[in-house]
Amino acid sequence: MTLKQHVVISSEEPGINPGLPRLRLALVAEAAERLLAADDPARMVDELFGLIQSELRLDVFFNYRLANGCLILEAHGGLTDEQAAAGSQLHLGQAVCGCAARDRQRFHMTGVQASDDPLVAFVKDVGLNCYVCTPLVHGGTLVGTLGFGRKWADRFTDDELSFLHTLCHYVALAKYRLRVEQELRAGIAHRERLLSELNHRVRNALQLAVSVIRLEAGAEADQACAAAMRRAGDRIEVIASAHRPIYASGDLSTVCIAELLGDVGGNRAATSIKVTTTEGARLPIEQGVALALLVDTILSDARQIGKTAPMEIIVEGASGAITEVVLRGVAQSDDVLAQRLPRALLRQLEAMHSTEGEALIIRLPARPHA
């Protein structure tokens, strides 16, 4: 018996034959729903086989995944462990599934038990008498093959072939979706690792810069120059502190104000500082750094004039937007906010300021972060 006598090759697009029994149409609908919601490529084909096995009286299925130019047996049913091991990997063009993958055509093998063709040797040894294998292709991308076999009959009917071909179309779509999702997740995870490492390196570099500046300040004979260098080191450390809260949240574009100002207060205060914020209060990282530098400047001034009473920082806002920062217990003169750096920071924040007794109030425009 020649190959052409028992192979039917088809490249037609999948479609549902309107003459299919209602039960099979329902099976197609249920299978499509399951496949498009699946999250495991091997288990979803196992479940598909269980769904249609009785209706089509199937004995075996083979599901191969294309990887590095070879077909890897990803899921199967009706095979012994020895048979599965024997067919665990195929080259393109090897056996029925390898030919279906190479040619991207559906193969319908009939009268297998009466055939001496080496192409069907494996499915013949399994005991099948007919076998249909469909390449799983979506958008021009080959993702594998899916085949079904029977031992009790020598062929599938045209309606059965159309039914199986339609199901394979949905399997190809589902597998392609899962592959794309896996690649996207891997890409996102890789990007997050890179960004985390970048933030870590930036913070370490800033800390190194602080150490160098303080070392130089300690060796500086001119006290005014040494004091200026120490202030510069303090401000760089504030910028470094802005990176620390990012690690905990995984949000690489905004910073938690409570953690940021808590770090500033803990590093700079001559006395205890309590930080109270609206839940979820965050700012874009650039604005957060500017606010931290401004608060640091104010607290440093309070320290220089010998302020010892407990201080409190209250951050208020709505819907995630920071609208007001109140620094209580700060004896603040207009001279500090009139200096060059605080003026520049207030402009960057587009903020206004006022005083109420010993409380300094900084008002920011209500701009929820993206």
Automatic annotation (TrEMBL):
Entries under SUPFAM superfamilies matching the protein: GAF domain-like
Occurrences of domain GAF (ranges): 40-185
Protein name: GAF domain-containing protein
Organism: Novosphingobium kalidii
